[in-house]
Structure formats: C-alpha cells, structure tokens
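Repro:
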Amino acid sequence: MSYIAEAVIRARQLGATVEAAAAWRELLAQTHVDEADYGDWGRELANLYVRHGRHLAAARIHEYLLQTEPALDLYTKKGTARDVGRVLRLGKRLREASLRYREAGLFAHAARAAEEAGDFPGALALFDQLVRQREATNEPYLAGLAALNGARMAERLGQIDRLRQSLALSTRLLEEEGDRREQVGDRDGAFRCYLCLIQVGRLSKSYEPFAEGYLNCIRILKSKGDRFFTVQYYYDFIAASEELGELHSVAELYREAGEYARRVGFIYADFFLTEAAQAWLRVAKGASEKSQSPELVENALLAAVGCFNRVQDDGAVATCYGRLAELELSDKKKARYADLSKDLSRLASGGKHPAPPAFPEYFRRRLPVQEVWIRDLLEEESGADIPDAIGRLIGDHKNVWEVQRRKALLISLAYDDHLAGGGDPETVPPGLIERLGELQHPAAVRPLLAMFDQGDEVTKALVIEKSAQLKQREVFALIDKALLTTGRIHDAGVTALRRMTFQPALDSLVRIFNSHDTPEVRDACLKSIATVGTDEACEFLLDVLRSNVGNLAQKAKGLLEQHAQERMLSALDRNKRQEPDQNLRLFIGRLVERIRMQRGAVM
C-alpha cells in the first residue's frame, strides 16, 4: 500500500479530532496528486475546520474547490469586503460583487464586476473616479489606464464626446509615461504603455496611435535583441494594417521586417521582402484603377523593383520594368524602362526564381490581446498581505496554474494557523516566507516587500534570500532595497543578484551595474548577465570589455569565453565586422569559430 493511501486511512481513523485536521493538511501538501483526490481531502478538511471554529481557513478551501455558497457564507461571517466581493464574482453575482468591492475602496475591481454585469454607466463612473484618484496621487500610468477603460465604457454607451475626451487623456498620460520609463531604463514598463496605445488606436479607429503603439513595441523588442517576438509583432502589425486597408504601410512594414530579418540572420528575410514587393504591386494596381497620377504608380512599381532586387528575382524585376514602360511617362523614361526590362528578361531566362522559405504558422498566429489596461489596475489593488495578495490566487482557476493555486491555498492556511495560534500579523514565521519563495508567482512580491519593510535584520535577509527563488522580474524591487543597506542584508542582495539569470532580468541587471560602484555588486551583475546569454547580454559584455568599466575588462572577457553560445552569435558576428581594434576582433572571431564548431558537432 502506498504512503498516500496509508495517510488517507489514518486521517479517516482520527475522526473529527485536531490530529485529523493535521493529517488532512499533510495530504494537501501533496500538490501534484490527482484533482479528484485533492478535492476529496479538501472537503474533509473544510468540514473539520468549520467544526473547530476555523471559519476563514474553511472558506479558503471552499473557494479553492469553487464552492461559492459555503465560501460566501463563511466569508460573510468572518472575512472582509474584498473576500466577499471576490467570491460573489466567482459565483457570477456580479452586481453584488461590484457593491462589495466599492465598499472596500477597490474601484478597479468594482468597475470590472460592473462591466461584466452589463452595468456600463456604473463602470464608467467608477473608472472616472479612479482617474481622479490616481491623478491626485500622481500615478500617471494608472490614471492613463483608468481613462482608457473609461473610453471602453463610453464606446459601449455610444457616448462619442466622452470617448474622445478619455482617449485624449489616456494617450497623453501613456505617451509621457512611456517616454519617462524608457529614460530610466524600464523598457518592460514602457512596453506596457505602448501596448495600451495600440488599444487606444483600436477604440479611436485612428491609425496613428495604433501605429505608434506597434512601432514602439517593435523598437523596444529590437533593442532587447528579442528577434522572435520582433518578427511576430511585425507580422501582427502588418496583418492588422492590411485589415484596415493601409496598403502603403503594409508594403513598407514588409520591407522593414525583411531588412531587419536579414540584419539579424533570420532565414525569413526573403519572405518578407517578396511580400513587400507584392504589396507594392497591389498599391500600384490600386493607384492605376483609381486613375491616379502615373508618377504615383511609378513610385510604387519602383519600390517593388527595389524589393525584388534584394531577393535577386530578375524575372520579377523585368516584369515591373515592363509595366513601367507602359505608363504615361516621358519618352526618355519609357525607353529606359523598356531597355531594362529586355536586358533583365535575358538574364532571367534560366528559369523561375525559387520561392523563399515559407513563413511558419506559429509566427503567423495573431498575438493574443494582452488586456494590460485592466490587469495592471487590478494588480495595483491586490493588497500587500497574504490573505489579499495570495488569497486571490486560490479561486482563480482560469489564470493561475493548478499547482500554484494549491500552493497559494497552503500559504493562506499556514497564515491562518499563525493567527489562530495568537501570532502577530506583522511578524510572519520563517516557514511562510520560504513558502512564498516557492510559489513562483509575482503576487508573492508585495507581501515580501511588506515583510522586508517591517522585519528585523534576520527577517530582511531571509526575505531577500527566498525572493530570488521566485524567478520574477518584480523581485528587483526587493533587491534594490537590500543593496541600499549594509552588512548581512546587503550581502543577501548580492547573492540574490547572482540568481537572477533569466532573460527578463537583463534590463534590471544592467541598471544596477550602471548605478553601483561596489565591486561585488558589479561582479554579480556581470555573472548573471553572462548566464542570461542573449544577443543583448553579449553586446553589453563587449561594451564592458571595450571600456574597461571599473577595471572589469578581464572579468567580462572571461565570462564571454565561458558563456559564448548560439544565442550570442548574431551579436558576435556583427561586432566582429565592425570592431576597429585588431586584438578584440581576433578574440571575437575565436568565439564565433568556437560556437560554429560546437554547432557542427551537435548536428
């Protein structure tokens, strides 16, 4: 008989005792078991907790099980307005949920529930209130999001003037905040502002903010060296522009995407350039059908020629010149175009130009709309203690991974244990801090920040140590605090830096490297940046090697030798071509050769 089966039998034999509750809790710690078993154990434990007067703990379990009525009954007796609102929404009692959230001062949550209930006037009023609140507290990003959501409600209500006013305010706030965030090195934060500008364009049915949002997102992705997402955003922007009938933009974007793909060594460059040429041909055809001036048709056909030339499709170039020769242009131009068409036709007589590599379907899929404009408002209201920040994950079966929901439940139950035993709400046991680190969800950062601010030296150091396990970019808010201290807490911050080796951490690592002079901080940043190992990480290490910042050139050189990999190849190739220093060029060349040899060995 398995350990789990024996544990279930033992728990049932213990009946309704306190020991039985402890036994069921031990079983719930098995977070990877079958859902049916986990649900049965949870129901057993919830019933015991009600008997023992642990109503909040029982309510958490019922919420995890999506049993809204018993959870609501228990939260109404012992919980907060936030708890009640959350479960009412889970149970689709949306108007009641909105009222409870409003009582708790959670206007974004109240507005979302009102919107889901179809109460668009109520939602609009709440978003307007949120705009005023966030402007008064000098939070332009959140005010901009609230204005954007207000615009969505105004559109639903057909209030055109309100729609325009809200969009104008949102655009101004988001543009200014996007610029500010970029200036301080927060590219991910700026990216979110520009995603919202895309939504502004959709609501205003105006191409300008729509294009501004996409182009800024693409620019940031390029600067981060994220070529896969860059290409996806190009394709998504192109598809959206085509739907809007912006054919000139489509053609130019295809060309720009092709040049970018060629620059970073992507094999789909010829696909984009060929599509750019075809798009210019469509522009020329449209201009001709509308009897527009021959010069406009000429310009479009010459743009197509440029793109076909880039992929060396002489036959297509010859065809374009043939069409140019038929336009009502000067005799001199027509003769020149006719001669070029004949000459190139002879060159292309060898056969049909091969088709470019097909663009894969996984790149062609439209990007899912990230509703940043509502998500970030809700996140801001999510609370800074365990019942609020972590409790909200328990019933969120649509957005939270199942094992994370179970871990969130166990954290909430452990916190309730702490309070039931007479513990101080502001002094969380070390075991709970450790559990938060294991959650691997950004929701854990807010409670950890609160614990850091309230804790003694031992607690602060433990918070920093365990937060690094989260592998979330938001943890840098804690590391920044630790690095401003001295002694044990500062050392914990440096150790945490060495563990931030995932790609979204790069911007923050570069920011900390540039803003700190202490050797141990810079050394930790460099090691983590090298381990991230992306194209952009490679560029940064090469810059340190060139400039010998803080005598770290040899460190950067050693890290490049240790971590050189396929993901760095594009940056190394580019720098090898451009590097004026012969010794450094030879060093980069050796790294390139080694990576290519390793690639051949694998193949």
